[in-house]
Amino acid sequence: MEAEVVHAEGKPRTHWEHFTRDEQLGVRGVGRSLEQAFEMAALGLSALVTDPQSVEAHEELEVSCQSVDHDELLADWLRAVVGAMAGRRLRFQCFAVRLDGLNLFGHGFGERAGAERHGLHVPVTGASLTHVSVRQGPGGVWTAEALVDL
């Protein structure tokens, strides 16, 4: 699978993408801030299941978590998103994240899955995450990524 890159309108440095590594699918969020990178990683994860542009924001998911480092914090955040997609059958249009050190306060906006609006995409029952990585690169751009097995 080739990397699919989606740029947020008017913000070429902020985007999500799918990639493969050793035949495993991954999601990557890139942002001008650590918060944006986390938001974009969650949006890329959601896009594995449903096109975010087909989702309306009728429901809100609130998540708060804390961890010992940014890698583990990203893993906890993405697990919470997967949990909402599996347990509450939510599909997401967008996310908002606020970080206070290693404390994350996140919101996901979307709606319940419906075949008539979202198609019969991947059913979500859970996910395992490996090779979780959060790093700051040249120009201060942040990258948050993980390999995902839905």
User: What's the helical proportion of residues?
Assistant: 10-25%
Based on Cα principal axes, name the global outline. Answer: globular
- Structural class comes to alpha+beta
- How do the helices and strands follow one another from N- to C-terminus? EEEHEHEEHEE
Largest sheet: 5 strands, antiparallel
Sequence of strands across the biggest β-sheet = 1-2-3-8-7
What does the model show?
- The chain is an alpha+beta fold and 150 residues long.
- It is 24% helix and 47% strand.
- It is built from three helices and eight strands, in the order βββαβαββαββ.
- The strands form two sheets. It has a five-stranded antiparallel β-sheet. Strands 4-6-5 form a three-stranded antiparallel β-sheet, with helices on one face.
- The chain is globular, with a radius of gyration of 14 Å.
- Residues 1-11 have low confidence and may be disordered.
Q: Which tags fit this structure?
A:
single chain, about 150 residues, alpha+beta, Archease, Possible Chaperone, Chain: A, domain 1, five-stranded antiparallel β-sheet, three-stranded antiparallel β-sheet, about 25% helix
